[in-house]
Each structure stands twice: as C-alpha cells, then as structure tokens.
Amino acid sequence: MNEGKQTPQRKVLLVDDDRLVLATLSSGLEQAGYAVQACASAEEARRVLGVEHPDIAVLDVRMPEQSGLDLAKHLLEHPRVPFIFLTAYSEEDVVQQAIEHGALGYLVKPVDIPQLVPALEAALARATELGKLRTTEQQLQTALTENREVSMAVGLLMERRRLNRQQAFEALRTTARTQRRKIGEVAEEILSAAELLNVSKTS
C-alpha cells in the first residue's frame, strides 16, 4: 500500500452545451479519479479559466455563440492548457480545423469513459513532452543569446557529431550537469580543446 502517497487528482475542464453529455461524462470521470469542472458554454469556461488552471480541457466543437474552436484559441494564448475535442461530426474539415487549433486528441460522439480516459492520458503525456521541448528550446535561445561561447560550442558539436542545434545544446547541458559545472565553462573547454587540436594539425 502507498499510504500517505496519493497521486494528485488530474483537473479536467469539461465543456459541452449538451447537459446530458456533460452530466454523464462528469460523473464517469469523477469515478475514474479525476477532478472535473463542468461548463455548459465557452463563456462559462472562460470565467472558470480566470480562477482555475486545469491540467487538460475537453471541448465540444459545436456550441452556440462561441464554439469549442474559439475557446481553443483562448486556451493556446492564456493560459496554455492542452485540450482534446468532442464532436458529433467526423467530417474531414472539422478534423483539419481541430488539428490546426492545436488539439491533442479528437473523439466522435457518442463517447464513453473507457474511450475518453485513454485519450485524456495520451494527450496529457503528449502535452508534458511538448512542454519539455518548449523549455529546452527556450533555454537554448537564452544561452545562445547571452553567451557567445555556448553558441560557438553548440555549432562545433553540430558539425563534429552531426547533430541538430537542440541535440547539440542538450549534449552540452548534460555534460555540464554530470560534471556539476556551468554550461559556459564546459563550452569554453570545448572551444579550447578544438583550438589546441587545430594548432597541432597545422604545426
């Protein structure tokens, strides 16, 4: 038993103008261990997002006044919340719009909990992966902007190891972590070693 070590509940924002669907899915998700905030409109969901930050949102595509697609734009801008779409339609144009709006999943109604839970977990895993990639890219941009040596060392690793920029930066950062040193120091060391190698080749 894992007494005292409970996994925090995943918070799900569920948005659907069909109150029967809303009640059924809310109940099922709560029984599956999720904390659910149910909203019957995009406007209500926006108000909730003003005070809550769910782990993921489940959006009905077609709703009166503001659609799930409109709400998706808001989720991508502020705050950044991953989402999947629910819809009664499976037309190609709707699927394409869902993809273009950044959906991490897409389910056609009628949807039951055994379908929804795996889709939620897959989307959450993908969102975590994308978050890590964004963080690494931001760290890379900051390092390259602030430190000329890091930028040059990354370029050297790209050339010698045939890596892309992000892979080269990750290799540099991993070395710094392993040696418990600053990334700038490791970069300077790589550049110094390269200079010595070039000198020995030309002498």
Please describe the structure with a list of short key phrases separated by commas or semicolons.
single chain; 203 residues; alpha/beta; 2 domains; five-stranded parallel β-sheet; 5 strands; 60% helix; elongated; disordered N terminus
Describe this structure in words.
By secondary structure, this protein is α/β, with parallel strands linked by helices. It has two domains: 11-130, 3-Layer(aba) Sandwich (Rossmann fold); 147-202, Arc Repressor Mutant, subunit A (Orthogonal Bundle). The chain is built from eight helices and five strands, in the order βαβαβαβαβαααα. The protein has helices at 19-31, 42-49, 68-77, 92-100, 113-146, 148-161, 165-178, 183-202; strands at 11-15, 35-39, 56-60, 83-87, 106-108. Strands 2-1-3-4-5 form a five-stranded parallel sheet, with helices on both faces. Helix 4 (92-100) links the parallel strand 4 and strand 5. Helix 2 (42-49) packs parallel to helix 3 (68-77). The chain starts with 10 loop residues before the first strand and ends with a helix. Residues 1-6 have low confidence and may be disordered.
